[in-house]
Amino acid sequence: MWSAVAPAPSALPPLAADRDLTVANWSEVVEHFREGLVVCDADGVVQHVSPVAERLIPEVTPGEPLAAAGPAPLRGDGPAEFAHHGRRLRVRPVALSHRRRCWYVDDVTESFSRADAVLAERARSAFLAVVGEKLGNPLHPDRAAAAVVRLAVPTAADVAVLVLAPRSGRARWWRAVRADDRPPVVDSGMLPATALPAAIEAGLAGAEPHELDWLVEQAAEAGWLPGLDAAGATARVVPLPGREAPAGALLVARRADRWYDEADVDLVRAFAARAGAALTTAMLYRDQAEVADTLQASLLPVEPASATGVQWGTAYRPAQAGLRIGGDFYGSHRLADGGSVFFLGDVSGKGVEAAVFTGQLRQCLQALHRVETRPGRLLKLLNDALLETTQAHGQGRFATMVLGVARPHRDGGLTLTLAGGGHLPPLVLRESGEVEVVPLRGMLIGVVPDPRIGEETVHLAAGETCLFYSDGVTEARGGRRGDEQFGAERLLHAVTGCHRMPAPALAERIEQVTCDWLAHGDHDDIAVLALRATGPAGRSPRHLHAVPDPETERSRELSA
């Protein structure tokens, strides 16, 4: 490279032409060059050293052989680049007349540093881009923490330790250790909050400890620096930003020959900022998932309470399987006189909103059954409560429902007093194998102030079953074309011959037959409640674990 006032090498009379000018004639010209010049005669003895060359390679003096005094790269025959006296030099030889040689010496320290800085910045940017990509996926704090320490090694550390903010008095930590050319080894552990090193406590409080020896000593005492000599290591601690307080603290350590300069610390801080954002997101997702799981658990149908002389069978499949909740519900409550109030219903809509409405219904029933046990009156009270709730919230939801009271007899039978609110009629499976449809009618619940409620009484002998179901069974669309409803007739056929089945097996069979009809297609919420009279002392029949063959049953009856 040449300065603006310097002529190109080919324009230099003594260097490009064969005119024999003395050094004195052109020294005044070359002293303005940005490059230094060293001229040697045919024997390699230095004849001239320009002022720039004197500053860059002071050991080269006129009258001395260049090979004896100059740096090793000047003894070769080609261009070279080397470090010398804290500078970066680039040299290139040019042949002159009479076997003389001129060495151009260029100080490229600044350009070399700029190039290094650009490369380093590109490497840092690439590293942070990878960090952003890798930390964008984990939505679980444990997986996010493990990813953080794994990414920190070896770019930012030979050993990286992440400590999350303590919960319930204990702090979880993750560590990644450099393992030569293999992926870093990651492990984890738990510490009481009172046993955390002081530097980590400071990091969790949002500070950035800078007592380097002290940091290494504490990390070594905690057993977090395997493979590193505490006397020959350097470390830093940075907090990981969170929502209101740091999400954790990151300890990075490596050998002292890779000291953390300001650029390295800035990189660790930028890395920690991204790690903190990922961890905060993961912890927020965890907290929301815990709340959602708790709410889901409270909205799931509750298994009926055990009652004397009653065997319950239930099946439930929400329309949106991922939510686990829907708009169908069932349950029961024991009464003080030994009976049970039970119910099965279906609210309008699907998903979370429908499930919340079912929760309101169940809560109302839980309170109202303590003051009213007559099914018809209880259903009207429930209707009034729902109307008040829906009008207050501007909702337009309604429900269909069957509500009943079961009271056991001494002979093992049951009397069911049923009240209907616009729901599908129950089925009764008699001991003889006959299937009866209970003509229970009524109006929707939650629509008008004084609905007409249907009422029926059903007597079950020991071993007989009453089956309740939602419209997700009869309105299931499937079949060969995929759009044909399952219907009441197919349901009657499906339960025929199942009169000796235990209640749980019967409910499971209805669900399975319906799902087979659907063939994995979309469907409404499906709910089934089976109530079976168990007989004296609550004994269930000892046989019948499967659907009997009608021909076999007919043969048995004839032989009897």
Topology:
Layout: H1 13-16, H2 23-30, E1 36-40, E2 46-49, H3 51-56, H4 66-69, E3 80-84, E4 87-95, E5 101-107, H5 109-134, H6 141-152, E6 159-164, E7 170-179, E8 182-192, H7 198-204, H8 212-221, E9 233-240, E10 248-255, H9 262-299, E11 310-317, E12 328-334, E13 340-347, H10 351-368, H11 375-392, E14 399-408, E15 414-421, E16 427-429, E17 435-437, E18 454-460, E19 465-469, H12 471-474, E20 477-478, E21 484-485, H13 487-495, H14 503-518, E22 526-533, H15 550-559
Antiparallel strand pairs: 1-2, 1-5, 3-4, 4-5, 6-7, 6-10, 7-8, 9-10, 11-22, 12-13, 13-14, 14-15, 15-18, 16-17, 16-19, 19-22, 20-21
Name a few traits of the molecule.
560 residues; alpha+beta; Beta-Lactamase; Phosphatase 2c, domain 1; 3 domains; 5-stranded antiparallel beta sheet; 15 helices; elongated; disordered N terminus; disordered C terminus; Bact_Sigma-Reg; GAF-like_dom_sf
Task: Give a short summary of the structure.
This protein is of the alpha+beta class. It has 15 helices and 22 strands. The N terminus and C terminus are likely disordered.
